[in-house]
Design brief:
Length: about 475
């Protein structure tokens, strides 16, 4: 570590070796005089507003020699800006400058004055596309961590609300914040999270929030159920903090991590609480029921096809009329092909320009719908049931839960094809065990409040109770 010298020119020479302004066109070095002493500023163009720097320079240049304090503390008092931090080493100062702050060297001071007047480029706090609601707040998180903290703090006005900042990544130094209410949050979990972040040994959190999630909970990710709850809504994050949870914010990410998490927490949506209790309960139960049906519909249909004698008379219409069928492809293969085709259409929709999205939808509807049946690839029943399954998958706000249901549906299809009813039962047991033994960062049960059983909390998770009685 290189200590800051008294000479600003010497500091500038050593500092330039670290940050390399000759190799970076956006690193600006400004030389001037303050009260008769040489001074140099280092900053990154694009992180600092020109108007702010002009005001700072006007104030510094107007200083008279007799007005200049002798101590770093005294000088920081006269800097016309709120956030000023002294740095004793050039490496620490370089780290701050690369985060967007302004580094100032002044003759006679063995201190680098770091002025935090950065302004990151940011989009508006519009409603997130994924977590939309029919009623409620229309703001959403953005890629700037300070703005996201402000959106939460706007909703939590208690002195017990705390936001602790740290960073991770030896090269990226990505800002990470823990937001919680002191006295409500689990102190052991909070300390464990801090220790895990402190011990992270990576160069950069390249994928922001997902990179952090994977290094916080290392090991095999065979279990498809999500270990964390993600949210892009400030109101959902604030509600989680009021419940005693901890919210982890990562700079450059428009989503936050909420811990601890159970499967019931992941399945909740903001719309559940923006409607009266009866309507909210109906929305909740409908989503749970549709998810269960989308999981077992095609496997159960496959079992009935293999055991037609077990199908009641009033359900006989679900069987495929072999005389009218034009497809020679086995049913299980049809279902698997459609599973992959649906994912292909989803990826195509994401990567298709807006102007071409309508033509793509028309082509997909004609090809997958009409011609897929008449060409002999698929039976109409397969398309019908897979259409419902697809709709059921999209009822989940969590992508991870949707894909977990999809993966287990495919496992159930294989088991039911080979083992019939026994395979269906074994697959459901495997699903329940996978949820029960899912590894979470808090060490608590993933299916709480079912195990350990808490009747009052279970009723709250399944039904939409009156907000005044949820304390």
């Amino acid at each position: 570590m290189t200590s800051v010298k008294e000479s600003s020119s010497e500091n500038s020479r050593l500092f330039a070796k670290i940050v390399g302004p000759e190799r970076n066109f956006d690193i600006v070095n400004k030389k001037t005089e303050i009260a008769g002493r040489a001074a140099e500023f280092y900053m990154i163009d694009g992180f600092v507003k020109d108007e702010i720097m002009e005001k700072l320079l006007e104030s510094f240049i107007a200083l008279k020699p007799k007005e200049l304090p002798d101590t770093p503390e005294g000088f920081m008092d006269i800097v016309p800006y709120i956030e000023v931090t002294p740095r004793e080493t050039l490496e620490d100062a370089a780290k701050d400058m690369l985060m967007g702050m302004v580094c100032m060297f002044l003759d006679g001071f063995k201190t680098c004055f770091v002025i935090d007047c950065r302004t990151y480029p940011s989009r508006g706090v519009s409603e997130p596309w994924k977590n939309r609601v029919l009623r409620g707040s229309r703001d959403g998180f953005v890629e700037t961590i300070s703005a996201n903290v402000a959106l939460i703090r706007r909703r939590i006005r208690t002195p017990d609300f705390c936001v602790e900042m740290t960073d991770a990544g030896t090269m990226s130094h990505t800002d990470i914040a823990f937001a919680y209410i002191q006295g409500k949050a689990d102190e052991k979990l909070l300390q464990s999270l801090k220790d895990r972040v402190k011990n992270i040994k990576v160069e950069a959190l390249t994928m922001n929030i997902e990179s952090l999630a994977e290094v916080l909970l290392p090991g095999a990710y065979i279990n498809p159920f999500p270990k964390f709850k993600y949210s892009e809504r400030p109101d959902s994050a604030a509600a989680a903090i009021f419940d005693g949870n901890i919210v982890i914010l990562v700079d450059n990410s428009p989503a936050v991590i909420i811990v601890p998490t159970s499967i019931f927490d992941v399945a909740e949506e903001a719309d559940d609480y923006y409607f009266p209790p009866v309507t909210g309960t109906y929305i909740k139960l409908s989503r749970y029921l549709i998810s269960i049906v989308s999981l077992i519909m095609t496997p159960l249909w496959l079992v009935f096809l293999k055991n037609p004698d077990m199908v009641p008379e009033w359900l006989s219409f679900i069987l495929i009329d072999e005389s009218a069928s034009t497809s020679t492809v086995p049913v299980i293969l049809q279902l698997f092909i459609l599973e992959f085709c649906i994912d292909g259409l989803r990826l195509a929709a994401v990567n298709t320009p807006t102007l071409l999205s309508t033509p793509l939808s028309v082509i997909a509807g004609i090809v997958v719908g009409e011609y897929a049946v008449t060409s002999g690839w698929f039976d109409a029943e397969c398309l019908l049931y897979m259409a419902f399954v697809t709709i059921g998958t999209y009822t989940q706000a969590s992508y991870e839960v949707g894909y977990a249901i999809k993966f287990f549906r495919m496992v159930l299809l294989v088991l039911c094809w080979f083992f019939g009813w026994w395979g269906l039962g074994a697959g459901i047991i495997l699903l329940l065990l996978t949820m029960a033994f899912n590894r979470t960062i808090s060490g608590k049960s993933y299916i709480y409040p079912l195990i350990p059983f808490n009747g009052k909390m279970l009723a709250r998770k399944i039904f939409r109770l009156r907000l005044g009685k949820e304390k």
